[in-house]
Every structure is written in C-alpha cells, then in structure tokens.
Amino acid sequence: MIRAVKAELIKTLGYATFWVLISLHALLFLLVLTIANKATLNFNGVESNILLSKPYTWGTVAWLASWFNLVLALLFIILCGNDFLFGTYRRGLLDGFSRNNLFKAKLSLLMLIAIYVVVLVTLIALFATPVLSSWENLLTGYGYILVLFIQMLGYFSIALLIIVLTRNIALTIIVYLLYFALIEPIIRLFLPDSAAQLMPVKIISNLTPMPDFLGIMAKQFSQTDSINANTLNTIDAINNSTSLTQNILVACLYIAIFTVLSYFVFRKKDF
Fold it and tell me: Could you read off the pLDDT of 245-269 as tens digits, one per residue?
C-alpha cells in the first residue's frame, strides 16, 4: 500500500499540468480574497467587507474558496484519466500492485489534495485578511474550513465515479460539468422540494453557503434600533431553516456511496 502511494505521488508531482493547475488555484483564490478585503461597497451604512470581519471571517473565506473547487476537480479527473489513457494501471498490475492498492493510492491522492486546500486556504487567509492578524477569536468559525474539506471530497467522489465509468478524460469533464450545471438542476425541477434539497450537488454545494449579508446587516441595524426585533427574528428563522449538520451527514453518506460504487466498478473494469 505504502509503495503504491509513493508511486502515485512520484507520478503526480512530476506532472507539469498538476503544478500549473495547483498554482492557478492558489493565485485565483489569493486574488479574489485580496479584492474582497479591499472592497468597500456601502449598503445603507453597512460596508460589504463586514463579511470578512470576525466572527464571519472563516465562513466567508470558505465560501470564496469554494468558487475554485471546480479547478481542482478537473485536475483530479485529468490525473485519474491519464492512468487509463497511458495504461498506468495495467503496468501497475504487472509490477505487482493489486487493484485494491491502486484504488487506495488514488484515494490517498484525493485526500491529500483536499488537505492541501485546507492548508492553503488557511495560510492565505491568515496572510491576506487583516482582521486575522489579531489572536482574539482567531478560530471562531474555523469549522467552515473543515466543512470545505468535506465539500472537496464530495466534488472528488463524483468525479472519481464518472471517470472510472467512462475512462475518458474529455467525456468525464463534459458529463461532470453538465451534471452540475444542467442535468441535476433539471431533475430537481420535477422533484418535491424536500427531495430536491437532498440531491448530491445541492447538498454538497450548500456546505459552504454564501454569507448571510442580509442577516448580518439586520444584526448591525438592530444595535442602533434601526430594525425591529420581529424582523430580525424572521430573518434568523429563514437562515436557520436548513441544518448544516444535516447537510454534512448527507454529504458524507453520498461520498461513501460514490466511493464504494467507484471501487466496485474499478475492480471489474478491464485496464
């Protein structure tokens, strides 16, 4: 198993496209976070950069980081697809690796990329977000970054299942993008709301929701009696209608299902 993981890392780290996409991901996130920190749009006396103030900082950072999940998902598709395209799995079997080892090595790579996201997002946020220079309440809301980790696993697990089914990079990318942008949204139109909310992409994308600017504004206004308590309670009720804990549990279930399905397909596929 360890030998298979080492071989996977050597192969991945020696691949130029890996470094190009990883660097692009880091630069794009840094650029967007820098712009967000400098933005000072004013809405009725409340500036937009309040979203990056404590205790909302990490939730906003996680939401901004989620914009670029697709870049890493495409990278993972390319890395998996190359093994089918160039016969790497076949050579691995000839070299004495079992299918279990090859699959676990790919899962290890998946986990490492997701861990990279957590580390990168944390370091860039600490470096580029002035409010985080203070130790006071530094880790308040940091759980959203850990939720981002689960979200990455969700995106990767869907990509893994599609690539082991098609074994074709271009087809996988097309199917993957279409499922996210078109197929599932159309399916949700024909489902009851309760069922539509539990579809994979809906659940996984909702793990890092857009910061509740209206709710934050309401709380700011309430401090100066600019908004009555009933309105504030109504906004809070709307915001708490969907349980993040429930979304995490369902997302983990989907990740497990997609991974198990990928494993059985991988075991049966001819290389």
Answer: 889 999 999 999 999 999 999 988 7
| CA–CA gap between residue 183 and residue 168 (Å, rounded) | 19
Which DSSP symbol is given to 42?
E
Report, in angstroms and rounded to the nearest whole number, the Rg of the chain calculated over CA atoms: 21
Amino acid at 110: L
d(Cα 30, Cα 24) in Å, to the nearest integer?
10
As a whole-number percent, the residues of the chain with pLDDT over 90 amount to: 56
Say how far apart CA 193 and CA 15 lie, in whole Å.
Answer: 44
For 206, list phi and psi in degrees, rounded to 5.
Answer: -75, -5
Predicted confidence at residue 66, as pLDDT, reads 93
Q: Output the furthest CA–CA distance in the chain (Å, rounded).
A: 73
Query: For residue 253, what are its two tokens?
Result: 């279930």
C-alpha span between 90 and 87 (Å, rounded): 5
pTM of the model: 0.86
